[in-house]
């Protein structure tokens, strides 16, 4: 199953959710392949102690057709295969300027899917053909937004694009992240979502001090570090919903 995490604005928590979801799925005994395709702002290497400055292949080398996807593989922990992106400026700029072969990428992702229980992708936030190519081969799309109107508007846009691409409604989950528990206007936000994206949030993640402190560092699953946190429970619920 190919699951893609998508947002519109930066900083909404896409990578934090991706990291914790990947670790939760691995802990449940599934073989997960985690791919950092947010090539303009990679961050998952921080979670899995993979130094992108090391002289090893990254997803950028694969996209630049300098290696195969299998050469990029890192094994940070049992059951979790990780495909990191690069922070090398020339590789990053070249891909952003010239794009890459989308068909070659989607074919490799589909091949990876045959070897894994779950392929989890931290996708490029911007609305690009490359991002859409990945969404087209995904079995589930998790649209991540904060309650901010600017972030919600981006989700309305993505919803409209997915509709135009003919992507089945059932594949889409909307995740509302960083909601303040004290917010009284959650119903208003849900109503805005319903109006703009023709769908309310499927999962709500409250603003979590643990996550804010954790940042993107460390590969200890949040529910082992902070087992009682609401965030941990919501990650478990999300993993269960996807896996079942
Ligand atoms: N539910 C939450 N509660 C509190 N802080 C959060 C929550 N989710 C994410 N954060 C924090 O928000 C910041 C941005 O998160 P993250 O890097 O995951 O966002 P992103 O959408 O991947 O951003 P980018 O566009 O840069 O890739 C991080 O410092 C993270 O710790
Ligand atoms: Mg990110």
Question: If you had to describe this structure to a student in words, what would you say it looks like?
Answer:
The structure is a single chain. This protein has 244 residues and is α/β, with parallel strands linked by helices. It has one domain (2-243): Rossmann fold. It is 44% helix and 17% strand. It has 11 helices and 8 strands. It has an 8-stranded mixed β-sheet, sandwiched between helices. The chain is globular. The N and C termini lie close together (11 Å). The model has no long low-confidence stretch (mean pLDDT 91). It binds adenosine-5'-triphosphate and magnesium ion. Adenosine-5'-triphosphate (ATP) binds at residues 7, 10-16, 38, 41, 43, 125, 177-178, 205, 207-208, 211-212, 215-216, 231.
| Beta fraction | 15-25%
State the helix count: 11
Q: What's the SSE pattern?
A: EHEHHEEHHEHEHEHEHHH
Considering the protein shown, what is the CATH homologous superfamily? P-loop containing nucleotide triphosphate hydrolases
Overall form: globular
Distinct small molecules bound, one entry per kind: adenosine-5'-triphosphate, magnesium ion
**CATH architecture designation:** 3-Layer(aba) Sandwich
End-to-end distance: 11 Å
Please tag this protein with its features:
244 residues, alpha/beta, Rossmann fold, eight-stranded mixed beta sheet, 11 helices, binds adenosine-5'-triphosphate, binds magnesium ion
Task: Provide a brief overview of the structure.
This protein is α/β, with parallel strands linked by helices.
Task: Record the SSE blueprint.
Blueprint: E1 2-6, H1 14-27, E2 32-36, H2 44-47, H3 59-63, E3 74-77, E4 80-83, H4 89-98, H5 102-115, E5 118-122, H6 129-136, E6 140-145, H7 149-164, E7 172-179, H8 186-197, E8 203-206, H9 209-214, H10 222-225, H11 230-243
Parallel strand pairs: 1-5, 1-6, 2-4, 2-5, 6-7, 7-8
Antiparallel strand pairs: 3-4
The protein binds adenosine-5'-triphosphate (ATP) and magnesium ion.
Residues 7, 10-16, 38, 41, 43, 125, 177-178, 205, 207-208, 211-212, 215-216, 231 line the site of adenosine-5'-triphosphate.
